[in-house]
Amino acid sequence: MRNWGKTIKRESTAKNAYSFTEEEQLLLYRIARDLLNGRDYGDLLASVLDATIQALGADRGCIVVREGGQFRATVVRNFRNQALAEAQEKISNTIARTAVEEGQILLIGDAQTSIPFRSHSSVRKLGLRSVLCAPLIARNEAFAVIYLENRDISNRFGERQRQILAEICSLAGPRLQVAVQAAHAALLAQQSQNLTGEIDGIISVDPQMRKLLQTVSQIAPTDLPVLIQGETGTGKELLARAVYRRSRRANGPFVVLNCAAIPGTLIESELFGHVRGAFTDAKQDRIGLIGAANRGTLFLDEIGEMPLESQARLLRVLQSGDFIRVGSVQQENVDIRVVGASNRDLEKEVEEGRFRKDLFFRLSAVTLHIPPLRERPNDIALLADHFLKSYANRYGRVSPRLSEECVLALSTSVFPGNIRELESEMARLVAVSVPGELIPATSISPRVLGRHRKETKNHEGLPPMSLCEMERKLILSVMEYTHGNRTQAAEVLGISREGLRTKLQKLQIGDTKTVAESE
């Protein structure tokens, strides 16, 4: 086992004998200040890497985190897409592993002639010259490495650069380890949450939605851009998260930008980031949401609101991964998947010149249409019951129950605000109803009932019918969804298994030979 204590002591002794210049001390101060500012995981790693590359004269670099014995490049700079995988799989498994195993900074003047590394095919293939690689150590554990290189100049790094990097690692190690552990804990929590639901938190017994979720399962493992279209309140972000959770990028970040919530003049800075001095209030560099989403998924909600100029820059990111921060001339590269969403008809927006045709074609290779709630009448009672229980639990109350008249009124109502409006109505009913009691139809908001009276006459999807027939249709739909499993169907309907058996007999739905039993 590596004696990290001796290694740390040896680095510390050498460091004390070195005198830093005023410029170097200022660099270390800026890094220390950033570490204390409580920034998020991605920004913190990027800030340290950017400052280190600039100060030491590297032309590219990465921070590689050790996860379960393997190395993963978490933040990278100036690697193009085709070199990114090699940087992770080859460089990380040779030079980075050596730095961790030896517990000290590797200073390689020319990797092409260096005896320990020149025989490695990755070193020859990538044309490596000057390399500086340092382990980040905290609590006697090397949990990551900072990897820097210069491909054009041999002996670019010397003892001065090695000592500066040693000081940076000494400053950053403890703080970055906390950030890495926090990110890992958040990932485990997210994965645990994902295991609790079969359809990523999306509640539905509707055949259209089941088909849509099947499509999500098929396209999620790819890296294709996705366009989600649907009316306001239908759950577009929830579906985007389902795409993310089922993708190979589930270990990476999920970054959200609501394009309608930010003025057009600020979107580019928010999306692409900026450098200090780019405009009046740009007092420090900012990574931007595209950079923060590296190795993950960027969700652009209401993408139809994005200005045309920003659309052109986004198209370049989709095509090559290249972008430039506001106020900078240095090109950067990211590896992200973009999921866009809009409640507008983007094809019509293209025809009217408000959305770029080339961006639309790039995004719409995979298009997911979420049906509005009025086309999913069998989901209304299910969702209403879910929201009632959720809000009652939030307020520490016993959940009230929907009466049969209330279920009928809701199921035949038109919800322009879709699921969001239904949720709001259920939250109100929990607040004004007696805990545990039946909610009468008269408690429903007059706004909802008013639309019900005016709009259900011509609503072909759900013709007028008796309460008994409505209940029969709902139970048949749920039984089809659970493939005849009565236990699961009873759970979905919110009744006991014996209660379901009684209703099946009363409504003459199937028999014990045709409907599967599940004990």
Please give a structural write-up.
- It is a single chain.
- The chain is an alpha/beta fold.
- It has four domains: 4-189, Beta-Lactamase; 207-371, P-loop containing nucleotide triphosphate hydrolases (Rossmann fold); 375-461, Helicase, Ruva Protein, domain 3, CATH 1.10.8.60; 465-519, Arc Repressor Mutant, subunit A, CATH 1.10.10.
- Helix content is 49%, strand content 14%.
- The strands form four sheets. Strands 2-1-5-4-3 form a five-stranded antiparallel sheet.
- Strand 9 (322-324) and strand 10 (331-333) form a beta hairpin.
- The longest helix is centred in the middle third of the chain and has 36 residues, at 159-194.
- Residues 1-17, 192-198, 453-460 and 511-519 have low confidence and may be disordered.
Write the topology of this structure.
Layout: H1 4-16, H2 22-36, H3 41-56, E1 60-67, E2 70-77, H4 81-102, E3 106-108, H5 121-126, E4 130-138, E5 141-150, H6 159-194, H7 207-219, E6 226-229, H8 236-245, E7 254-258, H9 264-272, H10 288-292, E8 297-301, H11 308-320, E9 322-324, E10 331-333, E11 337-342, H12 346-351, H13 357-363, E12 366-369, H14 377-395, E13 401-402, H15 404-411, H16 418-432, E14 438-439, H17 446-455, H18 467-481, H19 486-493, H20 497-506
Parallel strand pairs: 6-11, 6-12, 7-8, 8-11, 13-14
Antiparallel strand pairs: 1-2, 1-5, 3-4, 4-5, 9-10
Helix pairs in contact: 2-3, 2-6, 3-6, 14-16, 18-19, 19-20
Question: Per DSSP, what share of the residues sits in E-state strands of 2 or more residues?
Answer: 5-15%
The end-to-end distance, rounded to whole angstroms, is 54 Å
| Overall geometric form | elongated
CATH topology of the largest domain: Beta-Lactamase
Overall pLDDT level:
80
In helices, the fraction of residues equals 40-55%
Low-pLDDT parts are 1-17, 192-198, 453-460, 511-519
- What's the CATH superfamily of the largest domain, by name? GAF domain
Instruction: Give the biggest sheet.
Output: 5 strands, antiparallel
* Count of runs of 4 or more consecutive helical residues: 20
Rg result? 29 Å
Total separate domains: 4
Strand order of the largest sheet: 2-1-5-4-3
Kindly state the number of beta strands.
14
What is the highest CATH level, the class of the largest domain? Alpha Beta
CATH architecture of the largest domain: 2-Layer Sandwich
Kindly name the structural category.
Answer: alpha/beta
